[in-house]
Structures are given as C-alpha cells and as structure tokens.
C-alpha cells in the first residue's frame, strides 16, 4: 500500500473554500446502509480559506465549518453550516480578517487613524474562537472547539451556533485541548496550560461532572483535579491530547515549547501569530508524567525518552503494575506544524514529497511505564520480557529511560487520527485501532491496526482522500470490532460526485456502502457519531 502516488493533485480540493448549505441535501446511496445505523456523524474543519482578497496561511486558520451526515432508515442526508464564532462574524461584517489565527496575522483596522491604532496595541491579544478542530458533548450540550479558552455551543440537529463560552470563567486554565476524555457516565476530563505556584507554568487537568438531576449546566461545576509541573517554568509544552485510565492520568510533555514572552508581548507591534511563538527545546527529549486520577496525586516517577512530537494518544491502559501508553509520534523535536502551511499542502505532488522528506518521521509506538519502582533495580530493565518489547531502565539519577515497541512504521506514511471502540475499550486493554493513513501528509487511505500482532487492513482507492475514521459499534456487538467505520472521502477526479460518506465493515475494512453528495467537502479533523 506504500507505493501510491498523487500526480494529479486532487488533494488540493481539501483546502478549497465552500459555501454552507441552507438546508440538508439528500445523499445518493450505493450499497446498503445497516438498518441499525441511526444518528448523526458530526465533524469540524476549515471551510473558508480566505476573506475577500486576504488569504489564511495555515491548515488551522480557515474558518470553522460544521458538517453533519444523518442516517435514518437507510437514507442519508448531508448538512453544513459555518460556526458563527466572533472570528467568523467579524470577518463577514468587516470583509477582512479581523482576528489573528494560528498562522495568519490580522492586520489592524485600515479605517482607523494612527492615533486609535496606537491605543489598540495595548488592549492585548484578542484570542481566536475559531472552533475548527473537534466537537464534543458536555452534559446534554454539544460544543465545537479549537485549543484556546473559547468553546462554542452548537445545536447538533440544526448546526446553529448557540453561544460562545469562555473556559477561563469556570476554571483556572489558559486554554484546553480539543481532545477531552469523556467517560461513560458523561464526566469530561481535559488538560490545559495554566499559571501555577510562584509565577511558574503548569498544566491543569480539569474535570466537568456529568449532568445531575438538578439539570444545572455541568460547566458551573468544573474543577481542577491535578496539576502537572512544567519542565521549564517559563515555557509550557504544546499539549494536544493526554491519556486516561480508570485510575491514572498520563501527560506526555514534548519538546515543542510555547515562548510565553513572545506570546504575551504585543503581537500587533511586530505582526506575529501563534505559530511564531513556538520553539523547540533541543535537549530535553520527552518527559512523561503520571497522576492518580481519584486522589489527584502526582506519582513521583520521572519517565524520560528521546524527542518526538505528539498530537494523538491512541489508548492507555493498566496491566499488572504497568501502564501501557500507545501514541502516534513524529520523531525529533522540530514542530510538525511547520509543514502544515497551506502553500505546502497545496503544492504539486513532487514538491509535497520533497517537503515531507525533511519533516519529522511518523511512527506509532507503545511505551510501557512501570508504576512500582525499587531502587535496588538501578541499571535494570523493569519491563518483564514476555510482556512487551518496550523497555524501561532505572538510571542512577532515579529517572526511568523508556524505549518503545514500534506498532506501526512506514517511511513518510503516518498512522494518524487514531480512533478505537472508545465506549467499551477506552482506558482498557484493547486490540484494534483505526487510523487515517497520511502519505507525505496527504490523507490517502484508511487503516485498521491490530496493536498486538501489528496486522493491518487497508481501504484505499486512487485519487480518493478520506478523513479520520470513526468507529460505530453494532448495538448487539459481541466483539471489539463488531461495527462499521465512517469516513468522509473526496474523490475530485473520479466521477460526477465530488465527495461521499464511506461506510466500511470494521472487521475487514471492506466497503458496505457509500452516500454520495453533489458538493465538495473540504478537510475535516475530528468529530463524533451521535446515536439517535
């Protein structure tokens, strides 16, 4: 599966502006939609890549578009609406980019005179609320989010925007990831940077309880459960996701750092954006931290390993005094997001390949973290052999050096955007994960991986560009992989219909059905299936 090329450049359609729909459109189904599949696939991504003549520059800058595929009695409809964030509404009103995005600086209002512009320099940075990354439930509500302190409440049926919510008003964090963990009772856990004790930086784990009988908004009851220390008191690491089991929280601190002095100094004086505030610590490697979930107690064990970027945890579970931590890593300390500018992603295939050759290389890995440490074992590998090929060596400075077991590796072929049978297997021993295969950063296949045997199953078609696969379990499932996998695919060159929703049998990744639509669908990052 590694030989596929994309000289026609159809992937460029993933980064093209589209219009929202005024009402849902009917999709044309081939194959048979399982009768038990009832509900909505909700996904987020950028849908507006320029405002008038002003372009957005980075993959994470385009304005948030919320997508929904509805499944009912074997019929499928598709709907999409732009999220009415401040960033979007103000851009539409002023016909220019008003709020600075991840990789695009918003110039000051050209209509203001130099005097009023000078004073607006001292207002500080207006943080974006462009909720283009994910959508998740809190109690009975649904929120679209990015990684700042702003999340946006949306109506999952109509896709209308309800209101902007500022997390800072509820809990002590400067932002939160787009990858909360949601337990089966509805409890939400997330992590965000914060200011800890005596001016130094830290990371807070926040917990939002499930909806109670009083029907009060659970957000009002959010609390910090544990604080992880920062390796550098002035420079927090970029955090995109974390690991959770029934008893433990795992936080992986990578060498991609946010330079807060750059972040807090008035950007408008030097035309900066978020990307300008990242730097790499070339010597720290990676630090892993573990806390007890219920007591909110930090384990005083210093896990260390060599440098990688991390965006997505696959799964985490406990096994006889060890934590198994499965990750989608990118080797090295250079920030992978440096390669995700739209100019790179829209380049011709040969240029796309040339860029990806220089980038950090992807690898899915399993780390094994021993929880019970005996100083007498200094110099020894603490992971018993039959268990895993990963090692954990206690060093004389009392740090534990980790080496991973590789669970997937292909040159410039990433197993990314991992999903599992989350409801039944999150935080527990599991066998299968489903991922989006990136070929030199171009998403061109869907992949199922057996994390125990490393066996893979692949769905791939020429000039077809899928999205993150979402696993939906069969209601009467007996096995972990009883169910289907859903993905939005664009196939710009291959027929009259530019995009479709693909349904695969999760057992062998064979096609069950597809539901084609008459419109292009740009890239989406994350989402969920909401059962009817």
From TrEMBL:
Main location: membrane
Location(s) in or outside the cell: Cell membrane
Cofactor: Fe(2+)
Residue positions binding Fe cation: 179, 240, 312, 526
Keyword Metal-binding (UniProt): yes
GO cellular component: membrane; plasma membrane
Record keywords: Cell membrane, Hydrolase, Iron, Isomerase, Lipoprotein, Membrane, Metal-binding, Palmitate, Sensory transduction, Vision
Cofactor note: Binds 1 Fe(2+) ion per subunit.
One MF term in the entry's GO annotations: retinol isomerase activity
Top-rank taxon: Eukaryota
E.C. designation(s): 3.1.1.64, 5.3.3.22
Residues annotated as signal peptide: none
Membrane topology qualifier: Lipid-anchor
Entry-linked Pfam families: RPE65
Protein family according to the UniProt entry: Belongs to the carotenoid oxygenase family.
Name this protein carries in UniProt: Retinoid isomerohydrolase
């Amino acid at each position: 599966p590694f030989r596929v090329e994309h000289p026609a450049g159809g992937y460029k359609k993933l980064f093209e502006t589209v219009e929202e729909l005024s009402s849902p459109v009917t999709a044309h189904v081939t194959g048979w939609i399982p009768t038990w599949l009832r509900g909505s696939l909700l996904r987020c991504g950028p849908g507006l890549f320029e405002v008038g003549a002003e372009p957005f520059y980075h993959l994470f800058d385009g304005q948030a578009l919320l997508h929904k595929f509805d499944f009912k009695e074997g019929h499928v409809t598709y709907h999409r609406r732009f999220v009415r964030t401040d960033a979007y509404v103000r851009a539409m009103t002023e016909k220019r980019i008003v709020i600075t995005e991840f990789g695009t600086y918003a110039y000051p209002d050209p209509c203001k005179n130099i005097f009023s512009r000078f004073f607006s320099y001292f207002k500080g940075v207006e943080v974006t609320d462009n909720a283009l990354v994910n959508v998740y439930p809190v109690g009975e509500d649904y929120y679209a989010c990015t990684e700042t302190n702003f999340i946006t409440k949306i109506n999952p049926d109509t896709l209308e925007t309800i209101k902007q919510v500022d997390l800072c008003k509820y809990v002590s964090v400067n932002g939160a990831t787009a990858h909360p963990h949601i337990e089966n009772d509805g409890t939400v856990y997330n992590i965000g940077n914060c200011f800890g004790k005596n001016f130094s930086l830290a990371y807070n784990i926040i917990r939002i309880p499930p909806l109670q009988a009083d029907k009060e908004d659970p957000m009002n009851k959010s609390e910090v459960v544990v604080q992880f220390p920062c390796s550098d008191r002035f420079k927090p690491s970029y955090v995109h996701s974390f690991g959770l089991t029934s008893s433990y929280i795992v936080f992986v601190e990578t060498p991609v750092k946010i330079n807060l002095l750059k972040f807090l100094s008035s950007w408008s004086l030097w035309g900066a954006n978020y990307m300008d505030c990242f730097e790499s610590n070339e010597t720290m490697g990676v630090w892993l931290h573990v806390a007890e979930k219920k007591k909110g107690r930090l384990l005083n064990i210093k896990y260390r390993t060599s440098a990688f970027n991390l965006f997505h945890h696959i799964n985490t579970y406990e096994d006889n005094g060890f934590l198994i931590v499965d990750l989608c890593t990118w080797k090295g300390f250079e920030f992978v997001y440096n390669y995700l500018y739209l100019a790179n992603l829209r380049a011709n295939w040969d240029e796309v390949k040339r860029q990806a050759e220089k980038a950090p290389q992807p690898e899915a890995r399993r780390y094994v973290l021993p929880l019970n440490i005996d100083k007498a074992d200094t110099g020894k590998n603490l992971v018993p052999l039959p268990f895993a090929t990963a090692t954990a060596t206690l060093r004389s400075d009392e740090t534990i050096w980790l080496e991973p077991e590789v669970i997937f590796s292909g040159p410039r072929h990433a197993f990314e955007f991992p999903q599992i049978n989350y409801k039944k297997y999150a935080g527990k021993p599991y066998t299968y994960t489903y991922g989006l295969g990136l070929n030199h950063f171009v998403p061109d296949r869907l992949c199922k991986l057996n994390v125990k045997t490393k066996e893979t199953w692949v769905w791939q078609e020429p000039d077809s560009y899928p999205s993150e696969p979402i696993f939906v379990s069969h209601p009467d499932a007996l096995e972990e992989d009883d169910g289907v996998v859903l993905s939005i695919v664009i196939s710009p060159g291959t027929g009259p219909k530019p995009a479709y929703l693909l349904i695969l049998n999760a057992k062998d990744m064979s096609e069950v059905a597809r539901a084609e639509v008459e419109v292009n669908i740009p890239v989406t990052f994350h989402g969920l299936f909401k059962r009817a």
